[in-house]
Automatic annotation (TrEMBL):
It comes from Sorangium cellulosum (strain So ce56). This is Hydroxyacylglutathione hydrolase. GO terms for biological process: methylglyoxal catabolic process to D-lactate via S-lactoyl-glutathione. Residues 35-192 form the Metallo-beta-lactamase domain. Pathway: Secondary metabolite metabolism; methylglyoxal degradation; (R)-lactate from methylglyoxal: step 2/2. Binds 2 Zn(2+) ions per subunit.
Amino acid sequence: MRDPPRHAHLFPGSRRERRYSRRLMRILPVPCLSDNYAYLVAADGRREAIVIDPSEAQPIIAALEREKLGLVAIVNTHHHHDHVGGNEALRERYGDLPVYAHSSDVGRVPAQTERVEEGTPVQVAGLTLQPLHVPGHTLGAVSYCVEDVVFTGDTLFIAGCGRMFEGTPEVMHASLSKLAALPAHTRVFCGHEYTVNNLRFAEAVEPENEAVRKKLAAARAARERGEPTVGSTMADELATNPFLRCGEPSLRARFPGAAPSDVFAAVRRAKDDYR
Ligand SMILES: [Zn+2]
Ligand SMILES: [Zn+2]
């Protein structure tokens, strides 16, 4: 379930990828479909990887072979087809891999074998994933923290957030607030390349926000180079993402509401109508 891929023309069929080397793990964003990202994550020095949100199998298989990595688990942030579409084909190819998704998504995530709950870490491939239950986009949405990184699926985008298909504004706002409370240096990897359009909207609602202007210029430049914009920081999101700024005077002035979740609901409605 996606917003229209308004900037898909910037990366038609692009399979360019960027590697993020971290001290304790490697993260490889794998572009899938028109604007999705799956991620291969491998603990440093290990040849086993997990895949987060394989939209489709083929780009994942190609990336595993190129990187000489073995696949040992599938991890899903939510049940939408553009995040789980490759589950079954990957299991056909690599064997009966464990498939992790929220306990409430049993029956909705293809081939799910493991029931994820917040508070119960997932240990796999030398990695420890801390699940955060973040309902709103869907009721079973999970974000996964690994070291100082968070994989947010369609809950938190760079400078945006997912639509509320299965949650109320109160629920979605609470989930985003949970993510916003992560340490400021946390790196954010999300499920779609919507950044430029999201920042255009952010600029429209906060034209005086210099951080938005700078991040939009940087995002446009990255896209023109064919690079993903994922790997933002929570500090950047707090400075630029209107959905995390519902308590700021600038947003409250434009979107009056009694509670931050009312402001959030109004900003979300404005984004739904934004072209
Ligand atoms: Zn999606
Ligand atoms: Zn979704």
